[in-house]
Amino acid sequence: MMTDEQLASRSFSLNDQIAFARLSWDWNPMHLDEAFARRTQVGTPVVHGIHNLAWAADAVLFRFPFKVANIRARFLQPLYLNELASVRIRDRSDRQVEFEVVAANTVVALIRLSSEPGKALARSTLLAPSVPAQISQPADLRFDELADQTGTVATGDGDVQSPFPALSETIGIAAVKALLATSQIVGMACPGLHSLFSGLNVNCALDTERDGALAYAVKKVDARFRSLQIDVSGSGIAGRLDAFARPTPPSQSSMTEISLHVAGSPFAGQRSLIVGGSRGLGEVTAKIVAAGGGRPLITYRDGQHEAERVSAEILGAGGHCEILRYDALMPASEQLQQLGAVDSCYYFATAKIFQRKSALYEPDKLRTFMRFYADGFFDLCTALVHDGPAKLALFYPSTVAIDEGVRTTAEYAMAKMAGEILAKYLNEFTSNIHIISRRLPRILTDQTATVGVASADNALDVMLPIVYEVQRTARPEPAPRG
Q1: Nearest 5°: phi and psi at 241?
Q2: How far apart are CA 386 and CA 317, in angstroms?
Q3: pLDDT at position 482, please?
Q4: Per-residue confidence (pLDDT) for residue 351, from 0 to 100
Q5: Nearest Cα residue to 298 out of 367, 345, 352
Q6: Which residues touch 16 (CB under 8 Å, ≥6 apart)?
């Protein structure tokens, strides 16, 4: 029977996440730590996939109880904290029910419960459990270390019946604990710290040897996509988990490396405001300016610790650096009252580029990007323009996404193009400002580090000639070399 019935809805708070971590023993900071999640492509903590699955399955089984022998799920998109999610039935018969979890008009998970065990799984060999490992911190393994990983995790000892009563009644408390422990395997043991749980296919109520433990063994890896398949068995379930090993957050070039590319002191005496200088392109730009004898002032909105880290590295290398909290979405003049004179400015303020989408074009996303790339940029330029003969040199980074036409980045590209046009008009009709804009290639940063096969350029290689151009524009007469 086909249906489009909405069955339940809820959002998951940070407290809900902590409660689930206590049950599953999956304390991966991707689900709990704002600072850690900020340096991933999603940019913010996300709900455990198994938490989403267990809640949705419980809601379905409360309404349509039946004996479950097989659970299949695909986690298609991240579900964010405090985001309303709904369970919607797609198809239901006497033997199975298929349903989806939807958030912001996007399917984030597809799940099927069946009264018949998966035949391929039924023929698989059960794993021999070892002594369960006590995992206090997520493993941080290289991808080449994952291929032959095996082990056993202990299932949690908390009360799973209260949050998941219908699921516990259907497959048993031991199997629910084992289902939750699959999150521990992926998030804490293998791949561990930089993991992405993409799906599972498990049979329930099997004659496993030991309650309270879940054995695992990696059976297949694919380095092209950083993917792996993990067999599991124990405590009433057996089957396969699908996961990805996310690349570690990229580290930008050090002051030592950058100093080798900057001869003398070409930027001596110049003070540069670098909006968004706490990581990525802004971090590299600040280090280039400092390596050349300039005085970068880097701003941050949320990442004070990251800004302090960049500043400490620059100061430790004998350079100069200041930090300032600045929000590109708030009035610039009020935040820059104590700024003082600057010779150049680099504008790296940005929204999250790769966002979940349900349509080719979503006006709300365009408005968000426009607030950064047009409104915030114009407000900053207005606040920085000063009287006098000297011109402020300002860099506006645009993107090759305008030319490439990637389906998921339409609004981002549209807003960047609007910023290009705005820069042209500012150059034409505003005195004392000179804006340089370049369409940058995909560059390896926190936002572009992905499990896919997309390549990315090195930030230093891209920004070095641009910084020289901007700083020369800020000082037409060459500075004496030191």
Answers
A1: -110, 145
A2: 32
A3: 41
A4: 87
A5: 345
A6: 51
Query: For residues 472 and 478, what is the distance between their CA atoms, to the nearest angstrom?
Result: 7
The residue with tokens 């929204």 is: 351
Considering its fold, how many domains does the chain have in total?
2
Among 245, 279, 295, the domain-final residue is: 245
Q: Is 158 among the domain residues?
A: yes
Domain with 370, as residue range(s), is 255-474
Angle between helices 49-63 and 14-24 (to 10 degrees): 90
Strands 227-234 and 295-300: unpaired
Position of tokens 């011109």?
391
Strand partners, 474: none
Coil vs helix vs strand at 377:
helix
- Decide: helix, strand or coil at residue 296: strand
In the block, residue with structure tokens 């860099």: 395
Q: What is the pLDDT of residues 103-117, one digit of tens each?
A: 988 999 999 999 999
Q: Is 383 exposed, middle or buried (0-12, 13-18, 19+ CB in 10 A)?
A: middle
Give me the half-sphere count of Cα atoms (radius 13 Å) on the Cβ side of residue 319.
31
CATH assignment at residue 319? 3.40.50.720
pTM score of the predicted model: 0.82
- List, for the chain, all residue ranges whose pLDDT scores fall below the cut of 70: 1-5, 121-125, 206-210, 386-390, 444-455, 476-482
- What is the spatial distance between Cα 330 and Cα 438, in angstroms, rounded to a whole number? 25
Which helix (DSSP H) or strand (DSSP E) does residue 417 occupy?
helix 410-429
